[in-house]
Amino acid sequence: MTESQSPSPKRKSHLISPTTLIVLAAIIVAAFGICHAVGMRENVSSLFATSSGSDSTMTSAMAYVALYLCAVVLAPIFAIAAVIMKALQLALARRAKAD
After folding, report:
1. Residues 79/22, Cβ–Cβ less than 8 Å
2. Which are the contacts of 76, defined by CB distance < 8 A and separation ≥ 6?
3. What angle do CA 89, 95, 97 make, to 5 degrees?
4. Mean pLDDT of 63-91
5. 48 by DSSP, 3-state: which?
6. What residue ranges do the domains of the chain occupy?
7. Is 62 within 8 Å of 47 (Cβ atoms)?
8. Side-chain half-sphere of 60: how many Cα atoms within 13 Å?
9. Are 45 and 81 in contact (CB under 8 A)?
10. Distance, CA of 86 to CA of 92 (rounded, Å)
11. Could you report the per-residue pLDDT of 35-50, keeping only the tens digit for each?
């Protein structure tokens, strides 16, 4: 590599960042909100044999349940992890600046 091709030492590429986690949480919640607004909630009763349904009804019911679980379990975890990660990054940056 020549000097013009070498990567900058200040630029770090992180796959998981606080911003990425917040965006993922927002996407999950938005997808669940769209499914709820479209009316997929009514199809969930077909999973429990309280009403008959076609294959598409069963598929939409399973998608709704999966998105619900992701919105209730994963999205808050991603948001909390983003806050903790950002706090640690700021604390480490202050500590490095002080040294």
Report:
1. yes
2. 25
3. 100
4. 95
5. helix
6. 18-98
7. yes
8. 16
9. no
10. 10
11. 999 988 888 887 777 6
